[in-house]
Amino acid sequence: MSQLSITLLRLGFLLLLWSLVLTAIAVLRSDLYGTRVVTRGRGRTARQNPDARSQKQAAPSRAGTGVRTGAVSTKERTSAHLAVTSGPLKGATVPLGSSPILVGRAGTCTLVIEDDYCSSRHCRIFPEEGQWMVEDLGSTNGTFLGNQRVDDPVPFRPGEVIRIGATSLELRS
User: Origin, by domain of life (predicted)?
Assistant: First the structure.
């Protein structure tokens, strides 16, 4: 073997080692600092239009995700909402409208759950023909409606519980 080929092999091996080190650092960084919170929706409109803040009745605790904690107003009680009954976000509620709700670990999801058994885009809850449906989005550990694993979209009725790892979500009307 010539000296040039040995030098090229050494450089290739060195590049491979550095890519492994940088990948390990990136994984450690994401584990230490968690997911990045992205401000969406209500947060931007409140900053752009100062009068919109004075018209709000109650400020949400997590403006970007629509997740609310604490007491629920009488207006929200009449409409359907998703309540977190166990897990790290216990007590939080998500009002359900006409758009689908994404549940997962990614910062782009509507309901962000920091759980090792939750995928980045775990499941989707969406309205269809006057009822709510739940669909697993190919998660590793699965989505359970009661004790049944969800694969295809299935109806999700008030009072039923979805289990994702240590987190339970209940549909309330």
Answer: Bacteria
Alpha helices (H) along the chain = 3-33, 42-48, 50-55, 74-78
pTM here? 0.55
Could you give phi then psi for residue 129, rounded to 5 degrees? Answer: 55, 45
pLDDT digits (tens, 9 = 90+) for 91-123: 888 888 888 989 998 888 888 988 888 888 999
- Assign residue 46 a region: left if phi > 0, alpha if psi is -120 to 50, beta otherwise? alpha
* Residues 67, 69: Cα–Cα separation, whole Å: 7
How far apart are alpha carbons 143 and 135 in whole angstroms? 8
Tokens for 155, please give them: 């109806």
| Residue 28 tokens, joined | 């450690």
Rounded to an integer, what distance in angstroms lies between the CA atom of residue 78 and that of residue 86? Answer: 23
